[in-house]
């Protein structure tokens, strides 16, 4: 059984990190399984066993797409599994024009986020993907909410689908968390942590506005880079909380910061299956997260789609997307209860995500890509 995995790169993004973990932990050991990158960018993994299709988005993209498809078809794979939209499109088109392989596509985003922001162009994109994706033999979703979100935006129903959550190498995370990072502050303040790419849809400004309403003694570490950085720094000054906020940039080892933090904050408009939320919960950070599609409800333990201002769920707090006052109320409620001093509560949060270990999830992925479904 000859199989292949296709991903944009092994650098920075959440889906890229997932494939890196799977590849390094187990999948690279199989000589009949190949890994293709669309860009030769590797930061998460130490592997050198991969091939590059070089499918950059430029004026030569159509020609590069044809060349990439031809390369895949010549290899005569039994199964090709792709992650993210462009690899998924490549995989499905290869199937449409005569590929005999089993086409598996892994969905990594909630389509409601992209479709809600761009009007006509978004509708064109969804219609195009709807047609192309119907040729997939298997759809893999990261959460139940992601599958429901897909059904809400696509007319063609998947022939077959599976839910496979993201994997986490908790042993490696523990090891890295014990490294010494000089910039990690040690104070008696309540410690909040934000970890994300600094883009508009992550809505870090909502978190800053919520924090500006609080009169507790706190500090915030923000890990991440992105186009919103300067605007967020200026906003922290305008809100009068700049002395409490540290923008630390991208950190290859964020785990020491999770270990030091009391709370993890996210006001994201949409997620796929939020890696940083799982990582934070593993280290016992109390999550205060937007009730967005998809993943947070499932992870934090709340069954209802709708909430009022905020809800104290089983493993943390949820508030409505964009509602900084609701986020503030959640912060206020948790800090008033001194949740951050309750070791038992933090242990229960940590234990709730241990089922997503790389040993368990990699076995699920390996079975699918080798034995099909």
Task: Outline the structure in words.
The protein is an alpha/beta fold. It folds into 2 domains: 3-167 and 357-371, Rossmann fold; 170-355, Glycogen Phosphorylase B (Rossmann fold). Helix content is 41%, strand content 17%. Strand 8 (190-195), helix 8 and strand 9 (218-223) form a beta-alpha-beta unit. The protein is globular.
| End-to-end distance | 13 Å
Order of helices and strands: EHEEHEHEHHEHEHEHEHEHEHEHEEHHH
Average pLDDT for all residues: 91
What would you give as the CATH superfamily of the largest domain?
A: Glycogen Phosphorylase B
Q: Number of DSSP helices?
A: 15
- Helix content estimate: 40-55%
Biggest sheet overview: 7 strands, parallel
Beta-strand segment tally: 14
Main sheet: strand order? 3-2-1-4-5-6-7
Strand content: 15-25%
Briefly characterize the structure:
Helices cover 41% and strands 17% of the residues.
Mind sketching the topology for me?
Blueprint: E1 3-7, H1 14-25, E2 33-37, E3 51-52, H2 61-75, E4 79-83, H3 85-96, E5 102-106, H4 111-117, H5 120-133, E6 138-141, H6 144-153, E7 161-163, H7 170-177, E8 190-195, H8 204-212, E9 218-223, H9 229-238, E10 245-249, H10 255-260, E11 263-266, H11 275-282, E12 286-290, H12 296-300, E13 310-313, E14 316-319, H13 324-337, H14 343-352, H15 358-371
Parallel strand pairs: 1-2, 1-4, 2-3, 4-5, 5-6, 6-7, 8-9, 8-11, 9-10, 11-12, 12-14
Antiparallel strand pairs: 13-14
Helix pairs in contact: 2-3, 4-5, 8-13
């Amino acid at each position: 059984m000859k199989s292949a995995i296709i991903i944009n790169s092994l650098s920075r993004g959440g889906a890229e990190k997932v494939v890196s973990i799977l590849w390094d932990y187990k999948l690279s050991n199989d000589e009949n399984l190949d890994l293709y990158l669309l860009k030769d960018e590797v930061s998460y993994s130490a592997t050198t066993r991969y091939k590059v299709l070089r499918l950059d988005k430029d004026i030569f993209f159509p020609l590069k797409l044809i060349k990439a498809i031809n390369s895949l078809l010549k290899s005569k794979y039994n199964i090709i599994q792709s992650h993210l939209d462009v690899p998924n499109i490549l995989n499905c088109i290869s199937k449409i024009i005569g590929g005999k392989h089993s086409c598996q596509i892994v969905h990594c985003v909630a389509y409601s986020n992209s479709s809600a922001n761009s009007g006509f162009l978004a509708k064109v994109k969804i219609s195009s993907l709807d047609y192309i994706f119907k040729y997939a033999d298997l759809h893999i979703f990261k959460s139940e909410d992601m599958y429901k979100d897909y059904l809400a935006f696509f007319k063609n129903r998947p022939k077959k689908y599976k839910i496979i959550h993201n994997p986490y190498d908790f042993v490696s995370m523990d090891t890295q968390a014990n490294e010494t990072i000089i910039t990690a502050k040690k104070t008696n303040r309540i410690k909040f942590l934000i970890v994300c790419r600094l883009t508009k849809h992550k809505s870090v400004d909502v978190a800053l506005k919520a924090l500006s309403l609080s009169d507790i003694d706190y500090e915030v570490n923000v890990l991440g880079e992105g186009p919103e950085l300067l605007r967020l720094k200026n906003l922290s000054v305008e809100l009068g909380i700049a002395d409490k906020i540290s923008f630390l940039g991208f950190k290859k080892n964020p785990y020491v910061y999770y270990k030091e933090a009391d709370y993890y904050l996210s006001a994201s408009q949409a997620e796929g299956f939020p890696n940083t939320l799982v990582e934070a919960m593993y280290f016992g950070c109390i999550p205060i997260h937007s009730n967005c599609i998809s993943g947070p409800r499932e992870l934090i333990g709340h069954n209802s789609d709708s909430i009022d201002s905020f809800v104290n769920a089983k493993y943390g707090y949820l508030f409505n997307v964009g509602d900084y006052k609701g986020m503030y109320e959640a912060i206020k409620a948790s800090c008033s209860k001194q949740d951050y001093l309750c070791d038992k509560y933090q242990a229960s949060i940590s234990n709730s995500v241990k089922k997503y270990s790389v040993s368990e999830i990699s076995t699920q992925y390996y079975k699918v890509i080798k034995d099909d479904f």
